[in-house]
Amino acid sequence: MGGLFWNKVFAAVIATALVVFGINELSHKLINSEQPETPGFAVVIESASDDTAVAEIVKEVSLAELLSGANASSGERVAKKCTACHTFEKDGANKIGPALWNVVGRDAAAVDGFKYSSALSASGLNWGFENLNAFLKKPKELVPGTSMSFIGLKKAKDRANFMLWLREKSDAPISLPAFAAPVVEATSDVMQDVADEASLLIEAASDGVANVVETASELAEKIVATDE
Ligand code: HEC
């Protein structure tokens, strides 16, 4: 065994060590990706002074999210549950319930000539999406004593579809709530993607290392064999 043999073995070992070290560094860079300085949530949470406010915001975000994924033509079907008592078209008449043209964003109990319950009249509510959503879910829970005898729309999706449709029944539809959630989701999706990519990379890399080590030891064996 000449000096050349040991040189070769040494070189193979160094090369392998370098590759292993490099992959290790790379994987740490990819996996331990630093927390972003401003995480997706921060903007929202910072503006909230207490837990209730945070809970409110979370609720709003999820309603906004529901609305953003809602479908107005499915909402039209839901409206059939109301037409025994309500009209939705412009200049529609009051029936058992008040006319609902322009209702989204309007103050509660504001239709002239309709005899509202004192409960609704005194509620001080405005029919923004949040209140409307709660009223449609369980009228008597949001406004105890309301004269609207309707059990409510159980499914959040139905309510969202319906509200999206109802919003258009207006001279000037109010804007939809800003939908902040996708930003947060996108951020975590991206993080997830990066993590997935990283683990694939590492898998591939460790396969690679195994190959390099194998090749190196085969090489070493060959060298030993030729040297003998
Ligand atoms: C059985 C009759 C009936 C049905 C069905 C009904 N409502 Fe009502 N609705 C009423 C009555 C009566 C009121 C007035 C409530 C009060 O004064 O407390 C009302 C009030 C409302 C209000 C408040 C309007 C305002 O001017 O403040 C909204 C919004 C509303 N209904 C939506 C709906 C929707 C949407 C449906 C169907 C999913 C529905 N209602 C089904 C009878 C009904």
Task: Note down, in words, how this protein is organized.
The protein is mainly alpha-helical and 228 residues long. Helices cover 60% and strands 0% of the residues. It contains 9 helices and no strands. The protein folds into 2 domains: 3-38 and 202-227; 42-167, Cytochrome Bc1 Complex, Chain D, domain 2, CATH 1.10.760.10. Heme C binds at residues 81-82, 84-86, 96-98, 100, 103, 108-111, 116-117, 119-120, 127, 135-136, 146-150, 153.
Query: What is the domain tally?
Result: 2
Strand content: under 5%
Uncertain segments are none
Helical percentage = 55-70%
Based on the coordinates given, report the CATH architecture of the largest domain: Orthogonal Bundle
Mean pLDDT: 83
Give the secondary structure arrangement, pairings included.
Elements lengths: L2 H29 L10 H5 L4 H18 L3 H8 L38 H4 L7 H9 L1 H4 L13 H12 L13 H47 L1
Helix pairs in contact: 1-9, 4-8, 6-8
The structure holds heme C.
The site of heme C (HEC) has 27 residues, from helix 5 and helix 6.
